[in-house]
Amino acid sequence: MISNQAAHNNESYRLFGKRPLIGIVPCCPSVLTTVPALIRYFALVFTITWGVAGICLYTPAVVHLFRRWPASTNPLFYLAVYAPSVAATVLTAKYDGLPGLRVLFGRLLPSRLALRWCLIVLVAFPVVGLLAGRAAWLLGGPDVCIPHWPHFYGALVPALVIDPGPFGEELGWRGFALPRLLQRWSPLTASVVLGVIWGLWHLPAFFIVGLPQRRLTVPAMLLATVSVSVIDTWVFLRSRGNLLPPILVHLMTNHCFKLLGVSFGVSVVAGASGAFLILLGEWTLERGVAHAQRKQP
After folding, report:
1. How far, in whole angstroms, is CA 247 from its chain's centroid?
2. What is the mean pLDDT of residues 253-265?
3. The pTM is what?
4. For all residues of the chain together, what is the average pLDDT?
5. Is the residue at 275 inside a domain?
6. For the chain, how many structural domains are there in total?
7. What DSSP string runs through 91-128?
8. Contacts of 202 by beta carbon, 8 Å cutoff, 6+ apart
9. Considering the domain boundaries, does residue 6 fall inside one?
């Protein structure tokens, strides 16, 4: 027989949970909670990132000071990309103090469960990438290259250091924003909302020469960010709020498919397919649990 508490705990970590996940992940209570805190957070993030982008677009004299750097390694680029984590740190320090900062940065500490999900991410992404690349080849696209695996995983180490995205964004998106979204909405709704905001946050990059977004379309970017947001929420909940698996998801999203020779378009389809399969699995599990509970005397 499944107790009500056990059923609640099981539902708490499913994407189709019907109640908000209040208290499921460690989130310090503060004077500003849920919607007010989120509005202030997103306003600060967009102000920093879009402000830097405005400088790059409309003040060439300032950008000229950094002319020896390409756009993706420009110090201004790092400042813009680190805005989510900077804003999360500033607002947590202001409203929750040192206890809140300990909770926020404590999510970066490895646990046995988090390391297990990190391993799953490191294995699953290349498998999906190879399958997606081979499917694209069967449809007339270029063939995927099977890498030398030590070199493949070795290349991810400098990528984690050079790419500001994983650490610069995830402490904010998944460390600050997602727990507060989960206090108000279901995991699936929170994933979609955060994915759309995350995609719109990238808009200035479509107009800056030297950034990869210049070659993309906005709908494709939104599909990618919503899909990855669903995957991130899933691993975030399954790892009990640890940030290491979402950081690895971000890293693998940015670099795994490129290292395998898979195009961005194919990677978007692969990400959307992966998110769909996760949702399908969660929905099937939800139906199975509901059926089992109905059969109980």
Report:
1. 7
2. 92
3. 0.89
4. 86
5. yes
6. 1
7. HHHHHHHHHHHHHHHHTTS--HHHHHHHHHHHHHHHHH
8. 213, 221, 225
9. no
What pLDDT shows up at residue 76?
86
Buried b (16+ CB within 10 A) or exposed e, 81-119: bbbbbbbbbebbeebbeeebeebbeebeeeeeebeebbe
H or E stretch at 270: helix 264-295
Determine phi and psi for 185, rounding to 5 degrees. Answer: -125, 165
CB 245 within 8 A of CB 121: yes
Q: Are 114 and 239 in contact (CB under 8 A)?
A: yes
Cα–Cα distance, 292 to 15 (Å, whole number): 19
More confident residue, 209 or 148: 148
Residue 1 inside a domain? The answer is: no
Statement: residue 8 has pLDDT above 50: no
Q: Which domain, by its residues, includes 259? A: 11-295
Residue 142 lies in a domain: yes
Inter-residue contact 176 to 105 (CB < 8 Å): no
- At 27 the pLDDT is 60
Torsion angle (degrees, nearest 10) of CA 31, 33, 39, 44: 60
Residue percentage of the chain with pLDDT more than 90: 59
Handedness of CA 89, 93, 96, 98 (dihedral sign): positive
